[in-house]
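Blinded run. Sample ID left blank on purpose so nobody reads anything into the name before looking at the predicted structure. Input follows.
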Amino acid sequence: MIRITCLFLGWLLTWIAPAGAKPLEVVASFSILGDMTERVGGEDIKLTVLIGPDSDAHGFEPTPADARRLAAADIILANGLGFEPWLKRLTQSSGAKAPIIEVSKSVRPLPLKHAGHGHSHAHKHNHDGGFDPHAWQDARNAVVYVSNIAGALAKADPANAAAYRSRAKEYEAELRLLDADIRKSLSAIPQARRRVITSHDAFGYFGSAYDVTFLAPLGTSTEAQASAKGVARLIEQIRREKIRTLFVENITDPRLIEQLARETGARIGGQLYSAALSGPSGPAPNYVAMMRHNTRLLTEAMSEGS
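Blinded prediction complete.
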């Protein structure tokens, strides 16, 4: 009788456990946010990332499959600051009931016209709200993102709140070390050399945080169009200030940067990652690796002088 009862209880626990252990269904809007969410959520979540590695969020066009993913979500994580103008519409059309959490909340946003120390030469941008949305380019803001992610997951899944906060605390310590290392790497670069050209104006927060001037032929959106007059001014400035290094980005068409290189004699110093991670075998498979890769390329270029 005892053996039968034990077998029955074992079967009952096996039957009940999967329902109680069902992971939280989380949707993150793009790859960088997805990586942060995975670090905090661990095995307690089932993560779906809408815009994957090496994919441009600026020109993202949702599909019916994306709508189904939102409809199945328990929680939706977005950058905010106008980075996902399509998200509200997609959420409504999908019938999703999950809350949308903007992880940039409490970040001090940079106005578009003052983003970084540089300026862009584009006719337009199409980010809503008038703020530069690329706030993750300052590692201190990444700490804010992680705290907000942990808080959102803990609220949606109280049973695993302690695990989310523990992972977040460990990750935040890693991000603070990252911030310190970036500052140390750049500390030896003379101020006059801290000037670089990138494809689009996505490094305003990096520039503001780490005292680097970024110039770009495009605005904060890769969908903007560079004007001939603006490009001509930038070519003149590159020549005048003897800026020797240009950078392409993994999400932008390299032809404009290649044109600038031909016109000025500046070299292309490599590929930066601004708004999307690389694939697993690339140099930026996660946020920390992305920031270290970008810092290394920028430091090497600026160390060569201008």
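Unblinding after everyone has recorded impressions. The CA atoms of residues 269 and 300 lie 9 Å apart.
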